[in-house]
Amino acid sequence: MTVLYLIRHARSTWNAQGRWQGQADPPLDEVGQQQAAALAAHLRAETFAAVYSSPLARARQTAEPLARSQGLDLRLDDRLKERHVGEWSGLTEAQVRERYPEHYHPGWWIAGPPGGEAQAALTERSQAAFQAILAAHPDETVAVVSHGGTLNAYLAVQLGIPPGRTVTFRFANASFARLSVKGDRVYVVSLGETAPVDGAA
Asked: Cα separation of 168 and 23, whole Å?
């Protein structure tokens, strides 16, 4: 049985400003750097066979301290990137609501933002990434650092949630879920775990 740690990246500069990121590439802010260090320290006792990450800076900078603490090379996979949010990239939620009232509604993610990525496409690439990881690491423990939308898309399929159903798993910055996966059997061990971060919001 493969144990997956599904980790959302630590806080970025755009997270702090409340901006939609998608596949834009802002780095971690100071709080995010503290979160990434605390996460690595919190998981140091675990033995990972591999650490995978989205190549976007906020994910990569979260994963690097963890990989170093495990003595592992970081493995980057483009399929682990966040949803492309098209015209919403860089906007705040208030700006999206004001400028795109016809698109920003419950279930907007099914078709995706204007110029962005639909849920079906996000689901397809996230499933492909995790299928490859599971095939490469039978009966091992693996950390995967990605993004809220991507991790939600993967979890929804694993738990049999229909595409049109409004179910969201909350991944705070630098939080993680743990799954045990063997074939079609998926066990949710935990959701929303966080590492203690001294002095960080």
From this structure: 20
Give the number of other CB atoms < 10 A from CB of residue 75: 16
Amino acid (1-letter code) at residue 172: A
Please identify every residue annotated as catalytic: 9, 147
Structural domain span for residue 146: 2-193
Number of compact structural domains in the chain: 1
Is residue 200 domain-resident? no
pTM (whole model) above 0.90: yes
Q: What does the alpha-carbon distance between residue 1 and residue 3 come to, in Å, rounded to a whole number?
A: 7
- Three-class SS state of 179: strand
Q: In this predicted model, what pLDDT tens digit does every residue of 166-197 receive, in sequence order?
A: 667 889 999 999 999 998 899 999 988 987 76
CATH number of the domain enclosing 149: 3.40.50.1240
89 φ, ψ to 5°? -60, 125
